[in-house]
Each structure stands twice: as C-alpha cells, then as structure tokens.
Amino acid sequence: MLFRVLQRWTVAACLLLGTALAPTSATAQTDTGQNVLIIYGTGGLATWEQTFNQVFRDELSAEFGVYVTPEFLSLVNADDSEKDIIARSLALKYEQQELALVVALLPEANTFVREYRHVFAPNADVLHILPADNITTDYDDSITISVLESSANQAIAETMRILPTLMPDLTGLTVIGGGGAGDRSYMARFRQVFESMALPYEFSYMSGLTSDELINALKALPPDNAIVMTTYDRDDQGNLLRTLQITETVATEVDRPVLVMSDNLLSTGALGGNVSTVAGYALTAASLVENILRGLFPDDPVTARTQFKFNGQALDRFAVNRDSLPVGSQIVFDQPNLWRQYGTFIIAGVIVIAIQLALIALLLQAIRRRRRAEKELRQTQKLEALGNLAGGIAHDFNNILMSIIANAELAGDEATSGELKGRLGNILSASERAKNLVRQILMFSRPAGDSETSPLDVCAHIKETIEQLRAFAPPSCKISIDCETNLPAVRINPTQLHQLILNICVNAQHAVENEGVIAISAVSMKLEQAKTLHNQIIPRGNYVMMNITDSGTGMSHDTMNHIFEPFYTTKPRGKGTGLGLALVYQIVKNHGGYIDLQSEVGLGTTFSLYFKAESQDIQPIEPLHKDAMIQGTSERILLVDDDEMVLDVINRIFESLGYSVNAFTSSIAASQHFENHPNEYDLVFTDLSMPEMDGVRLINKVRQVRPLMPVILCTGYMDSLDANEISNCQILNKPVRSTELSEAIHNSLRRNAKVA
C-alpha cells in the first residue's frame, strides 16, 4: 500500500516539475502556430512509440506552423486515482496554451484521453490513433473526433490469403496475446477476421499467460502449426510486458513460424506477413493532423496502408519458397547467400564467357572483314577526295571549255583552209576529251542515289553501246553479244549504264590490242545463299549478271588490287587517264550493285557485274539526237553571263543561227532592262552562277513580269543547282556544243508556241 502511495506522489511530482519548466516555451508557441499535444501510454519504454514519435514530429515540422508536444505517460498499470492526478498535472502544465488538437496513441492513451480530456484540454479536437474499441462514444458535440484505425484487419486478412501458398503443409494456427484490455481487444479483432474467412486451419487461442507458461504451451504444438502474434502488453497476473520482447522469446525458443502484423516485430526473428508499418501510421497521422488543423475532418475512420514484409532468415529457417511470396514483397534481415545474391552475376558471367568463346571463334573472320572494310574505306576516301576536287573546279573549268569549244566551232565554220580546219578539229577533239574527263570526275562527287534511275533493258543498252564501239574499233577486234531472252529489268541511270559498258569495253579493246575477242553476256541469276567475290559479300536474291570477257594480256595479282583506284593505269603516258575502271566501280556501288574481277596474266580478263533484278516494266531507250544545226527566224534572245569570253562566243553562235541577241554581263542590269522592255524578247538564256544575282533569282524576276517566258539555264556545275527551285525551264550543262544550243533554243521556243 505504501508503495502505491509513493508511486502516485512520484508521478504527480514529476508532472508538476515539468509544468514549472514548460510555460515559457509553450506560451511562445501560441503566438506563431497551432499547438498539438500527443499522448503515449507506456512511459516512453516502447520502441514502437519512440519510432512513431520521431517520424510524426519530423513530418509536422514547425515550418508549417504546427508545434507538437509529446507526453510519454505511464498509463498501462495506472488506476483511476493515478490517472486523475496525471490529468490535473497536464491541466496545470498547459493552462497557458490553447491546444488545438489532442492526439492519443494506442489503447491506454486513447482511453485516458476519452475519460480525462475535459480536465486538461476541454476545447481541443481529438485524433484517436489505434484505439482498442469504439472510442467515439460518450463525447459531447462541442468538439470533433477523428479516428485512425488499426490496419490489423486488412493485415490479418491479406496474410491469411497468401498463407496456403506460402506454407502449403500448414494445418493449424495458434493465436497468442496478452491479458490487458487492449490486448484482448486486438485478440477479438483477430478472431473476428478468422471467423469471416473460410480458412482450412484449426484455430486455438492463448491469452494472458506468463512468459514461461506461454513458451511451455507453444513448444507442445504439433510441427505443422504456426503462431499468430497479436499484442502482449501485460499478463493475467498484472505483470507489465512488452510485445517486442515476448515475440523475440517465442521466435527464438519455439521452432514454429511466427506471423506478425507489425513491421517492428520482424527484428525478433518472426517470419512476417502483411504488416502495418510504424512509418506508415506516423505519416498517415501527420497528414490527418494537417487536414484537421485546416478544418478538413474525415467523415469516417481512416486506416494506414500495409505491405508484405518478411524476415529473410526466418524464410530460410522454415524453408519457405521465396518464389511464392507476393509480388513486391520486401525481405529484411536477409542472410548472405552466394547464389541468391550473385546468381544473376554468375549467370551473366557464364554468358559473357560463352560470348567471348564465340567471339574468339569469329575473330579470324572479323579480322578479314576489317581488312576488307579498310580497303573499301581507302577506296571511298580516294573517290571522295577526287569528287571534292572536281566539284571545286568544275564551274570555272567548264566555262573555259565552253569558250574554247564554241570559238573553235565558229572558226571552223569560217575557215577555208583544210589544214586550218584540221587543226581546229584537233582543238575540238581535245576539248571533247577534256569535257568527258571532267564529267567522269564529277561523277565521283555525287553521292549514291543522287542520279535519276529507271528500270532498263540491259541487253538493249549493251547492243546500243556496242554499235557505237564498233564504229571506231578495227575489224580485227571481234565483239560478240549473248543476252538471255526475257531478261528482268535493272534499275540504273541510263547514261551511267552506257558509260559503264563503254569504259570496260574500251579497256578490253586496249587489252586485246585491237586483235582479240571481246564477249559480252547478260543472264538472270538467283543466289540461294550469300556469295563472296572480290572483297565483297553479295546477299542472296535475284540478280542480272553481266559478264564482259576479253582474250587480252590479263592482269597480275598486284594490278588487280589497284585496278579500281583513280588515276591508276598500266597504259603508256598519254594513252589513258586511269579513271575508266574507277568510274565503273563508282557507278556499280552507287546503284547498289556488285563487281567481280577474274584475270590471269596471258589468259585474259572477265568483269562480272551484279545488279538487283526489278519486276517493273522496262523503260524504252530514247533515240539519239542527230548532229544538226537548227536555224532560227530572228527571234529575240536576252543573253546573260558574267564571263565575258563565254558571253561573246555564245552571242556569236546565236547570231550565226539567225537570232537577234541582246547580251549582258550584269544580271541586275539584265533584270532591270527586262522589266522596262518585257515584250521585246522571245527567250531568256542565262548562266547559273553569277556574283550579283544568280540565274535562278533572275528567272524568278523575269517570270514575275512574264510568267510564261521561255528560259534556258546553263551551268558549269550541275550539282550546285536545286531543280526544285524553278519549273518549266530547260537546263544545259556546260560546255555545250553549237548543235545542242540550237536544239535547246528550238525546243524551248516551240514548246512556248504550243502553250500560247
């Protein structure tokens, strides 16, 4: 009896001492924010409450204007008189504060607040967290009561749902709990959930046993039973206990899996289950407090979320298959396991080793492919360099050739001496060779797919090209053609196909020294599998294969390695440029084709060309234009070119053809003149590249005045022209022969006459 009295006075003295120390800081809080008092019932002994308090207060920082004061009260074994003393002590301590909200945690604190709140916080709203029963009864209507209910019902139900999969051999469950009022309330909650579910287990219940009695009883359970832990705050003899300590004792000394519904119990060695978490309750409670202080009260009790959480050591101890755990389960306190922790890395390592072995097996083939690619890269780089050079000089060089060719033609028309005409013919011949050389070089500057292609009849183009070749080949050079009937079409640029065939045949004619045989054939071929030829891999598919074979001197292996390089030639100086076969290679590659070469010294050479077969209709061959001059009938031409030498010679050619010409070296002056005299001209002939205003802009200026004005655009470098910028315009590529000029003017004027 004396001990009980001393205990009461000790409690009161401690609370009064706290009251004496607290008013200054408490009063300061009322000036800046809302005060929240949270009451714990175990005197600060429970780890669960300490963890909850830390998370809860961190979430409700003073930055948000909320000041939380915790009170850890010894309410578990307190009788009514002791509780009354505690309540009056709280009233003294907080009489200088206006408490906006009182929060109670766990059954003892919730019961205390319901019974004594009117003593120490009569005007404060109340938030009950995890009460034991229907705590909202016996309240007046002057305050608002909110409840954060236990998630135990959900946790229990979810744990029971997965249990048959988790432990398929389980037959019985023993539910254990303490003898306190809160303990029995939780035990009743568990029993209610079990009875609402159709579970294939035998249930037994043990409550209020002392620690020793409980361990002895549990050790007698059958081996196919599991233990379900509720709360254990006190036993039937009134001894104060801790759920955490009892759970650890049971999990350690009893060889049965222990199912728990709170994550703080997993550290004891319990198996786990669907658990509520301290942090989950604390965060949900903090969110509720913020809403309540804003006047947003929940209409119904709120619950916190649960999650599946298991002790890894217990899973291994009771041989629980981890694959049977629900998706998203969290495993804590897991023992290191080489295969489980590093199994993925081990498998990955084995795969890596297997891949490395495979790579080693393919290494030689990769080296060969790399060397082949390097060789093709060097070839491509040479061609690109040549193309860049050609593009840079094409315009000016073609202007010079234009002047030379046109002046030679005009001089040839006026010359009376046969010797003079012969010399002028030599100039024209040399200029034509220079013109063709520039055009060949320019092909290297054009990227693959840049030229216009169409489905063509290879045989027809072979025959047409050979007819031209026979015109200057000696009779002693025999040329034969053997083409397969109904040969599929090939998509290629017709001019480049003609150039390709001609270059190989001319090279073959030189190889046979004008006294051998050149055989040309074309057949369809279906490759069932990929084929390697001359450092290339041709994929399987349908192809048209063209062979050009000569009976000439053949080539050495070293010559074959360089034969497609620009400017490489085995011919004497002045007999070849070394561009013919380089151009052949470029044309084939630009059209997605493949080229093979077979040759031996003294046994001749065979070029094999492969092009993808097309299923589209073949385009007919356009007839060649006749080399004839078409005279004009005094039509008026506006001529514009910034190069005075070119302007002068074109002016003379036009006048010799019977046209009336007004020539300008300034494109701006020509544009202004045309605006002032738009009806004095029948045709505009202009250069493309001019410093003041280029030909495209000049044409657009002209057509702003006369939309249907016939126009011929002449350029020394076709690749610099975007044909989409202008329409209904005839384009000529310098240098141009007089016959081409006469035909172009004639066609433009005739087309305009039809439109008019």
Q: How many β-strand stretches?
A: 27
Major beta sheet, specifics? 7 strands, mixed
- What CATH architecture of one domain would you give? 2-Layer Sandwich
From the N-terminal CA to the C-terminal CA, the straight-line distance is 130 Å
Q: What share of residues is helical?
A: 40-55%
- Within CATH, the superfamily of one domain carries the name Histidine kinase-like ATPase, C-terminal domain
Low-confidence stretches: 1-32
Query: What Rg is obtained from the alpha carbons, in whole angstroms?
Result: 51 Å
CATH top-level class of one domain: Alpha Beta
Mean pLDDT: 82
Determine the number of helices (DSSP H or I, runs of at least 4 residues).
Answer: 21
Question: Approximately how much beta-strand content do the residues carry?
Answer: 15-25%
**What form results from the Cα inertia axes?**
elongated
Derived structural class:
alpha/beta
CATH topology title of one domain: Heat Shock Protein 90
